[in-house]
Design brief:
By secondary structure, the chain is mainly beta. It has one helix at 2-16, and strands at 31-35, 39-41, 45-55, 69-80, 86-89, 93-96, 121-124, 129-139, 144-153, 161-171. It has a single domain (2-171), classed as Sandwich (Immunoglobulin-like). The chain has a 4-stranded mixed sheet with strand order 1-10-9-6, with helices on one face. A 4-stranded antiparallel sheet has the order 2-3-4-8, with no helix packed on it. The chain has a two-stranded antiparallel ribbon with strand order 5-7. The longest helix has 15 residues, at 2-16. It is globular, with a radius of gyration of 15 Å.
């Protein structure tokens, strides 16, 4: 029940505002949700969220974990299914939680500070596979999240034509 409420909250958040208050019209989009370990097929690649874990607050000296927050590591595997390169960035996979403010910028993955993390920007070439982690700074009072990838097709506008939204449930073991 709580998982469905979280999922509904995230979809409502996406429909109303998107991350950082950027209007995201997803009411017409088909939405798919999966669990950790399931492979998702998008228009350009397949991806699997392999695992999620809370890291020690001092795991990386380059990252300051501010009071009230925790550091999450999300392991992900991507495999291109598109016939040409696909530009990717740390902003492609956004994390959401219950009662999240629509202007909360913590939904974006942190800038890469290790070789294990996916780069801040990269090209996913045809047939290529990338594996790495995404790090997120999230509220410490939460243990359930949804990691979202939303397709955007180039239609000549800044926002693009919105495609399918994919959500993967992330549950920390408390």
């Amino acid at each position: 029940m709580r998982k469905n409420m979280l999922y509904a909250s995230v979809l409502l958040l996406l429909m109303l505002t998107g991350c950082q208050g950027q209007g995201t019209e997803t009411s017409e989009a088909v939405r798919k949700r999966v669990e950790i370990g399931e492979t998702i097929s998008t228009a350009w690649f397949d991806y699997t969220i392999v695992s999620v874990e809370e890291l020690e607050q001092d795991a990386f000296e380059e990252i300051e974990v501010t009071e009230g927050n925790q550091l999450l590591s999300v392991a992900i595997k991507l495999k291109s299914t598109y016939y040409k390169e696909t530009p990717m960035s740390r902003y492609d996979f956004q994390i959401y939680w219950d009662h999240m403010e629509d202007t909360d910028e913590r939904c974006f993955a942190l800038a890469a500070v290790t070789e294990e993390q996916l780069p801040d920007t990269y090209e996913l070439d045809a047939g290529e596979t990338w594996e790495g982690t995404l790090l997120y700074l999230v509220p410490e009072d939460q243990d359930r999240y949804v990691l979202v990838f939303q397709e955007h097709f180039d239609d000549g506008t800044q926002q693009g034509d919105v495609g399918t939204s994919y959500g993967t449930f992330l549950q920390l073991n408390s």
